Amino acid sequence: MTNVAVDVPNNAVIAVRDLVMSFAGPDGRLVHVLDGVSFEVYAGETLVIMGGSGCGKSTLLNCLIGELRPTDGHIYYRIKGMNQPVDLRAMNEKGLNELRKRFGILFQSGALFNSMTVAENIALPLQEHSYVDSSIIDIVVTLKLQQVHMLEHRDKMPAQLSGGQKKRAGLARATALDPEILYYDEPSAGLDPVTSAAIDQLMMDLSKKLQVTSVVVTHEMDSAFRIADRMVMLDRGKVLKIGRREEFESLRDTSPERLANDDERLIHQFLCGDPEGPLTKADGTSEYEKLIIAGE
Amino acid sequence: MADHDNCVREVRREGNDIVVSLAGEIDLHKAPEVHRALVGACEGKPRNLVVNLEQVTYMDSSGIGTLVEVFRRVNAYEGKLGLSGVGPRVRSLFEITKLDKFFNIYPSEAEALRA
Ligand SMILES: Nc1ncnc2c1ncn2[C@@H]1O[C@H](COP(=O)(O)OP(=O)(O)OP(=O)(O)O)[C@@H](O)[C@H]1O
Ligand SMILES: [Mg+2]
């Protein structure tokens, strides 16, 4: 075993080290979706992960929660009640399941069980992990539904919910066990502005008042700048920049010609949603040319 | 490991009232023990049931749910449930769940008993 204590700062709950995730492409060649990604997530902070569609954000989340086995690299967790950080890659299925109880996960789709009511979906993790009285589980379900403004949908089936309602029910379920770490994949996509702001507020309450460590993938820049303590920008499988929210705000608010380099201009373009810039310049033109001219 | 500690430190009678002192981390695993103790304390229908949380270092939603369930019982016989020694974490949980307006929270056990 490697001595992980030296590699993981004391205030980090998660430390990702040289993470590589490769998939076999259609031609059989390996595509490195994540290509040497390293960063830390500190206790109680909200880290927002950004990057273009298909850049590997969901893949990264899936590695972090142990759904995908990384090709290479390490993911260390320092969890309450464990004296040593643990390496997710070195864990067996049983250890992973123990660890997963400490996470709450809000998937991109909400991921509810379709055969159960909203209330049953939220109660399920509580029933699975404890011998708490059903009357108390019922109360906890009410508390969780209240937090996401879903009390009136308690007895509905997922099929009877709108996209945003499903997402909120998913969040209620993700928080059922009061996790130490919450992962969110696009929490506010498809929500109206008021509901989206309410979800942001809940995320901030959980993080600031209960010190829940949060990792959030989002494309909604208003939301990102509201909730983030720090931000990561991924590009072509690598960390282009990681820093405090204020640094990203300043990149956003500086005009491109005054920025130092292409990386900064790329981040600026992304944050502002400009159609013109380094992101779109590089994008597939040569590929397109090849296809059109040579037909290959 | 704190896991084997007793969460219910003391159940004390004070005239017509009962004080239950809790300690440690009240989570999913400890909630049933706390619930049993509080339900037991309700049986004699004390005028005031005071739950002293001074030594509670952590509480999760199942702990809060347990307090709500007991709150209902005490209300049903028209008694009063008072909480004392509420630390910042538990207070935050009450705020987030908007339960602070339902519960009677006192700065000290003595004041809870006087209510
Ligand atoms: N199981 C897989 N097999 C092969 N390729 C995959 C697999 N999963 C993801 N990919 C590829 O990895 C890349 C990253 O996908 P991922 O879902 O992580 O993107 P994303 O950043 O979450 O995008 P979006 O913002 O659209 O959700 C994509 O090019 C995708 O085609
Ligand atoms: Mg995705």
Describe this entry's structure for a reader.
The complex is a heterodimer of chains A (296) and B (115). Chain A has 296 residues and is α/β, with parallel strands linked by helices. Chain A has helices spanning 57-64, 93-100, 118-129, 134-147, 163-174, 193-210, 221-227, 245-253, 262-272, 278-282, 285-294, and strands at 12-24, 30-42, 46-50, 72-77, 86-87, 103-106, 181-185, 213-217, 230-235, 238-244. In chain A, helix 3 packs across helix 4 (134-147), helix 4 (134-147) crosses helix 5 and helix 8 crosses helix 9 (262-272). The longest helix of chain A has 18 residues, at 193-210. The N and C termini of chain A lie far apart (48 Å). Chain B has 115 residues and is α/β, with parallel strands linked by helices. Chain B has a single domain, classed as Transcription Regulator spoIIAA, CATH 3.30.750.24. Chain B is 38% helix and 32% strand. Chain B contains four helices and five strands; from the N terminus they run E-E-H-E-H-E-H-E-H. The model of chain B has no long low-confidence stretch (mean pLDDT 92). The structure holds adenosine-5'-triphosphate and magnesium ion. The site of adenosine-5'-triphosphate has 10 residues of chain A, from helix 1.
Task: Write a brief caption for the model.
The complex is a heterodimer of chains A (296) and B (115). Chain A is built from 11 helices and 10 strands. Chain A has 296 residues and is α/β, with parallel strands linked by helices.
